[in-house]
Design goal:
By secondary structure, the chain is mainly alpha-helical. Helix content is 58%, strand content 0%. The chain has three helices and no strands.
Length: 85
């Protein structure tokens, strides 16, 4: 709510994609385009800020290796070789 223009009604919802689209459409009807653009930029910047600080990590143990990995690699290597010739 801090990112929305002053005077905009309080939004007490999770900001899913559809909710965001609805708010942006409402902003476009109520405010000049410069205000809408500034608000969208603030929302984008906040999303990036929090997404990069979420603490999500990926380890090698998170990756599932299919048992037929070698077969798959050989098949695609053969396909790549046939294309290169």
């Amino acid at each position: 709510n801090e990112l929305l223009p002053r005077g905009y009604p309080f939004v007490n919802k999770q900001m899913h994609k559809k909710v965001q689209a609805s708010i942006i459409n409402d902003l476009a009807e109520r405010y000049p385009m410069i205000v809408v653009a500034q608000t969208v930029d603030k929302l984008k910047d906040a999303g990036f800020y929090w997404a990069t600080r979420s603490g999500v990590t990926i380890a090698m143990s998170d990756v599932l290796v299919p048992p037929q990995k070698q077969e798959i690699l050989e098949r695609y290597e053969a396909e790549a070789d046939s294309i290169e010739k």
